[in-house]
Amino acid sequence: MIDFGKFYQQIAVGPLAGWLETLPAQLGEWQREALHGQFRLWMKSVEHLPALTPHHLDLLHSVTAEAAQPLSDGQVQRIDTLLRNLMPWRKGPYSLYGVNIDTEWRSDLKWDRVLPHIEPLAGRTILDVGCGSGYHLWRMIGAGAKLAVGIDPMQLFLCQFEAVRKLLGDDQRAHMLPLGIEQLPALAAFDTVFSMGVLYHRRSPLDHLWQLKNQLVSEGELVLETLVVEGDEHTVLVPGDRYAQMRNVYFIPSAAALKNWLEKCGFVDVKIADHNYTTSEEQRRTDWMKTESLADFLDPQDASKTLEGYPAPLRAVLTARKP
């Protein structure tokens, strides 16, 4: 099982201390009643991984860990096999002692687009909502964050995060909790809150924006990355049963409409920082994620459209401040 005790100790003093009134009971209930059927098998793979401390650790340019002396072929193969037990790997990539996890998403490309537009992360306490395997948490630490906390209810992602953390020397600067944003109290304790690839999955997008705002300190920054469509401030796509084969996509606004939504929720200094069409360089099938990916979701006759006939995935980055 996962021991969250070190995280509790870390936040016991400081702006997150109030979270301890609810969090341990919440996670205790999760461990007793809400575990996925595969969870114990996934955690066995994590437990069998060697506890390694990297001689060289690069979180600034990538997530790369290297030993002082190369591991034996047998050691590398063992790590590779255990990590493959945690497939599919969607967010990355990771380079860990000669094992290169080529994930479905090149999350490093998204990070390179986001980072130039946001407040410096040095010394900040950060929340990453819908963090997946936690790739961006490590990049946040590489950018100087004091503490990076990720939340995501998908339990496979939690096991992937714990596997990577074990191979990074049990690094305690980043933590992941199996929670959704709606399960957090209004902490008003984070200097920066990231929500990347989440908004279009929310039935009530304005409620999501309010929930994000409730986690920020005054003058804290929201970094929002999401699907958008071309159009003016009144344009919002409400897809039918599926969008690019995803079932749970509810609202895809234009960037201009999303800027209005943020201002309606009380954010200030709202900026549209970046627009970018998703390409098969950034999202594709790999040896670590073998099921369908972006190329399978687009119209084979017209890559500017999804299979359903909607505009192909366009993503925007917006930044905003809580006054």
UniProtKB/TrEMBL annotation:
It catalyses: carboxy-S-adenosyl-L-methionine + 5-hydroxyuridine(34) in tRNA = 5-carboxymethoxyuridine(34) in tRNA + S-adenosyl-L-homocysteine + H(+). Belongs to the class I-like SAM-binding methyltransferase superfamily. CmoB family. GO terms for biological process: tRNA wobble uridine modification. Its EC number is 2.5.1.-. Keywords: Transferase, tRNA processing. The lineage of its organism: Bacteria, Pseudomonadati, Pseudomonadota, Gammaproteobacteria, Enterobacterales. Coiled coil: none annotated. It is an enzyme of class 2 (transferase). This is tRNA U34 carboxymethyltransferase. The keyword tRNA processing applies. Carboxy-S-adenosyl-L-methionine binds at K91, W105, K110, G130, I181, E182, M196, Y200, R315. NCBIfam families: PRK15068.1, tRNA 5-methoxyuridine(34)/uridine 5-oxyacetic acid(34) synthase CmoB. Homotetramer. It holds the Pfam family Methyltransf_9. GO terms for molecular function: methyltransferase activity; transferase activity, transferring alkyl or aryl (other than methyl) groups. It comes from Siccibacter turicensis. The gene is cmoB. Catalyzes carboxymethyl transfer from carboxy-S-adenosyl-L-methionine (Cx-SAM) to 5-hydroxyuridine (ho5U) to form 5-carboxymethoxyuridine (cmo5U) at position 34 in tRNAs.
